Amino acid sequence: MVSPALPVDVPPQPWTGRFDGDGDEHRRWWQAVTPSAASTVPVASPGPRPAVILGFGSDAGVRRNKGRTGAAAAPAAIRAALGPLAFHLSRGVHDAGDVTVAGDALEAGQARAGLAITRLLDAGRLPVVLGGGHETAFASYLGVAGSAAVREGLSVGVLNLDAHFDLRDESVPSSGTPFLQMARAEAAAGRELRYAVVGISEPNNTRALFRTAEELGVDYLLDEDCSAEAAATFVAAFLAQVDALYLTIDLDVLPASVAPGVSAPAAYGVPLPVISAVCRQVAASGKLLHLDIAELNPEFDIDGRTAKVAARLVNTLLG
């Protein structure tokens, strides 16, 4: 039986980085990542699930949300930042290429990415989606919601590290609407969205958004309350409520000094050590089903800071 090919628009490209030698003791990401030609062949080997990187090159949602465009170039920038990192992982990592959104064809792009994510999940992979604006999250949701894990009754929670709820009620979907879209899709399927956010900026979310969050039963932790202890307690409580987790990271959760290359840089933000600790906590839980990272805008990045932070967080989550 031939497994269906992933619906990508751009095939995997060569990875590059510093060369110190060919042995495992010298290995870096660029030497370890392999093209994912057999991403949908089921695996049942013991140990960590192989990770598959999938780019989602999209600016359409940010443009619709009147943000600073440029996130479509983020997948390549994150790969470039990952490539030189020393490879200490105990799992295989593969690259499936990119799904790209042409012009304003956001919904079609999200559907293609969702199909690819479902196929990866059902084959026993850990998809690592590199956005794209935070419209990436709804593509991820489509993939998770269509997977065997959900079909078989697993309760999946959505943990968002973000300064914003992204619960806007708009006539046209955008980077500001994905989690309200998820809530409505879950309700239509007879389920309830389990959604929590770490890093909410009170001045950057209107009363209407807080009201929507309350109506949907969203758990959240404000950026000013994000001590390491408070964040760990919050995340542990959420993890205890679900069987599996979809983690989404909007890089604007970090201070602008750490992550300047985003559509909406944070005046306050959550310190990187706190966000990194949350990532380690999620990875150690054994419940991580799917992850994505969004809102890197290379056009506004300084010395590649934001791309390097994104790469470091991906490396932490897969370790």
Task: Please provide a written account of the structure.
With 319 residues, the protein is α/β, with parallel strands linked by helices. The radius of gyration is 18 Å and the shape is globular. The protein starts with 28 loop residues before the first helix and ends with a helix. It is built from eleven helices and nine strands. Strands 1-3-2-4-9-8-5-6-7 form a nine-stranded parallel beta sheet, with helices on both faces.
Q: What would you say about this model in short?
A:
34% of the residues lie in helices and 17% in strands. It is α/β, with parallel strands linked by helices and 319 residues long. Helix 5 runs parallel beside helix 7, helix 9 packs parallel to helix 10 and helix 10 (272-285) runs parallel beside helix 11.
Write the layout of secondary structure elements.
Layout: H1 29-32, E1 34-35, E2 51-57, H2 60-64, H3 74-82, E3 93-100, H4 106-122, E4 126-131, H5 136-145, H6 148-151, E5 156-161, H7 178-188, E6 194-200, H8 207-215, E7 219-222, H9 228-239, E8 244-250, H10 272-285, E9 288-294, H11 305-318
Helix pairs in contact: 3-11, 4-5, 5-7, 9-10, 10-11
